[in-house]
Structures are given as structure tokens and as C-alpha cells.
């Protein structure tokens, strides 16, 4: 019934989040945090390469992994058009096994909050830990939900270069404050000369975490030297974050 970051979602993503577009300063932040890396870096939930490509162009050795074949196809195309050929893997964050160990693993822009099940979240963090070299780092962005009004509907229209258009209806269908998650239904419809030619329905679950809660989770996995900052600003009190706070931690 539901798609997962499929063709229409990828088209909208590519249109609204082009390569190199910084969201709140995230690309600049990650370039700075990773500039000392000499070994491999893994971007988890790499999407279509908005972050990956600037990192590669800065001379960093970065692989990518994502669960969506459509997103990965777009990422490969974007990389090839720029003469880049990173290793890109299709797989679930909670159960992947790759041939390399990494000096750093990053998951920017709140994508970790899309891991729907809490046990899957723990499994994903364990996978990250297992794929790091001793002393390697994870850097993970977490986000807070923008709205918790169940039933709220928003609509958007995106004009494509081809002359087609995609409409997006975003309906918040479930809010669970006890277990800190929301569920939205995203309905994508593609139109050509007034006729509907393609549609997709995506179920989007978003989980969020308390700062102290996530620190305890990281400690449980075995991470040390855990630091949290807010909105891509060093030493900012994370309790004053608008939407984004970033954890950095080290594998022993």
C-alpha cells in the first residue's frame, strides 16, 4: 500500500534539496567536523547526495548507504555527472554489513528519526558502532517535530522542468506523546496537462528523543565522549535548540 521514498518523492526531494544546498548550515558544519578525517567516512541515509557530493568534492573519502533504490539511483546519476564514483550501498540501517570500517559515520538532517521502531534504532546504532574503527566517531542529527496537531493537512505544488507538476498532501494522522512519535501520510500526485499520470502514498513515521535519553542509549551501546550541540553551532546549549541537535560520540 505504501511506498518508501520512491520515484515521485525522489523527484520532489531532488527539486527542493539540490546538491550542495545547506540546510541551516549543516554542510558547513559537517565539512568542519570531518576535515581531520584521513580514512573512510560513511553517510547513512545518503539520499540523493545533497550532502555526500560536497564532502567528496572537498577531498574526503565518503561511502553512502540508503534503503531507497530510487534515491540511490538519483545519487549515482548526480555523482556521475560530476565525475565522482563513491561506493553506494542499498540496505537497512538496522541490519547492514559492509566490507569496510570507518573513521566516521554520519547521519545528518534528522534522518535517524525515520527509523521507526525503537529496537531498530538500537540495532542501527550497534551497526554504526560495529563499523567504526577504534576511536572512530558517529555524528547524528536529531530533530523535533514541527507540529503535533493530529489531523492537520498541508498541501504543496512543485513545477518540474519538464512542464509536469507534482502535488503533495501531507496529513498528520497519529500523534503519540507517550512514545514520542508521529505518523503522517504523504500523497504525491503527478500531473500532465491536467491529467493525473502517477501517484504514490508514503507513510512517514518520525520518532524523537530527549537529550538525556539519547545519551543513555549511546552509552548503552558503548560510545564514550558524548557531546551534544544545537542548530549546528558549537557549544550552544542544546535545550535552546529550535529544531535540530547533534550528537557526536566515540567508539572505544
From TrEMBL:
GO molecular function: methyltransferase activity
The protein's name: Class I SAM-dependent methyltransferase
Entry keyword Nucleus: no
Start and end residues of each Methyltransferase domain: 41-136
Keywords: Methyltransferase, Transferase
A Pfam family reported for this protein in Swiss-Prot or TrEMBL: Methyltransf_25
Cited Gene3D superfamilies: CAC2371-like domains (2.20.130.10), Vaccinia Virus protein VP39 (3.40.50.150)
Gene Ontology biological process terms, A to Z: methylation
Originating species: Paenibacillus motobuensis
Lineage top rank: taxon: Bacteria
Keyword flag Methyltransferase: yes
Database matches in PANTHER family: METHYLTRANSFERASE
Amino acid at each position: 500500500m505504501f511506498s518508501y521514498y520512491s520515484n515521485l518523492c525522489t523527484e520532489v526531494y531532488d527539486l527542493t534539496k539540490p546538491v550542495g544546498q545547506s540546510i541551516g548550515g549543516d554542510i558547513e558544519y559537517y565539512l568542519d567536523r570531518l576535515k581531520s578525517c584521513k580514512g573512510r567516512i560513511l553517510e547513512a541515509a545518503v539520499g540523493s547526495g545533497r550532502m555526500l557530493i560536497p564532502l567528496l568534492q572537498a577531498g574526503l573519502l565518503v561511502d553512502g548507504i540508503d534503503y531507497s533504490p530510487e534515491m540511490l539511483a538519483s545519487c549515482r546519476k548526480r555523482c556521475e555527472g560530476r565525475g565522482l564514483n563513491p561506493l553506494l550501498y542499498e540496505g537497512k540501517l538496522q541490519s547492514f554489513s559492509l566490507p569496510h570500517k570507518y573513521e566516521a559515520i554520519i547521519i545528518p538532517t534528522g534522518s535517524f528519526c525515520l527509523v521507526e521502531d525503537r529496537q531498530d534504532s538500537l540495532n542501527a546504532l550497534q551497526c554504526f558502532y560495529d563499523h567504526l574503527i577504534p576511536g572512530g566517531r558517529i555524528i547524528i542529527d536529531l530533530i523535533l517535530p514541527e507540529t503535533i496537531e493530529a489531523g492537520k493537512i498541508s498541501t504543496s505544488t512543485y513545477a518540474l522542468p519538464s512542464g509536469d507538476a507534482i502535488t503533495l498532501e501531507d496529513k498528520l494522522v497519529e500523534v503519540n506523546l507517550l512514545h514520542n512519535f508521529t505518523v503522517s501520510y504523504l500523497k504525491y500526485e503527478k500531473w500532465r496537462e491536467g491529467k493525473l499520470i502517477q501517484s504514490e502514498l508514503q507513510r512517514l513515521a518520525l520518532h524523537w528523543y530527549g537529550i538525556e535519553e539519547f545519551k543513555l542509549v549511546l552509552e548503552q551501546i558503548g560510545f564514550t565522549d558524548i557531546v551534544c550541540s544545537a542548530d549546528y553551532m558549537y557549544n550552544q546549549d542544546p535545550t535552546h535548540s529550535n529544531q535540530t541537535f547533534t550528537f557526536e560520540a566515540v567508539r572505544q
